[in-house]
Amino acid sequence: MEFPPFQSRQEVVIHAPLQAVWEFNQDLTNIAAYHPRVKSVDLISGKRERGNGVAYRCHLTDGKQTCVEKDLEVVPMERIVTALPEDTMGIAKMLSDYLVEARLTPVASHETKVEFRHYYSTKSLKAKFFNVIAKRKIARDAQNTLEAMKRTIEQYASSSFEGPKEHVAYDQDA
Given this model, what pLDDT does residue 174 score? Predict the structure, then answer.
C-alpha cells in the first residue's frame, strides 16, 4: 500500500500480550470504551469486527459531530490502515488522503507496543495552514487515545502473565 506523506507518530506500550491487544481492537464497539472523543459507534457495514472495507461512524462526545472511518487494510496481529472518507468537520475534504496506520508489535510475552502513524498531503494553501494549527492537536489527541486504550486493556488483562494463557475474554457489553 502506498502512503501519502508521513506527518506524525505516537506510541504506547500496553502490559498485555499481542493476542489480547489485537482481539480488543478488532471489536469496533470497543472504540467508545477508550477513545476520549467518541461517544458511540454505528456499524455502517453491519460488521462488529475490523476487516478490509469495513466502515463505521463515530459520534463524537460534543453530540454534534461525526466521522466515518473505513479500514483499508487489516494484517492480522500486525497492522490496520484506516481512512477518513467523511466527517462533519470538513477535515476529510481538506485532507482527502488522510490515513492512520496502527501497528502492533510484541515487546515481550506480556507487552505490546501500539503505534499510530498519521499520513496525509497538504497540497492546498488551506490544508497547509490547517496543518500548522492542527498537527500538534492531532498528535496530542492520538496519544491521549493510546493512553486511554492502554488503561482500558490493562484493566481487563492482568499485568503479570506467566506463559501462554487461554483467550482473554472482555465484557463487551459493558
Answer: 38
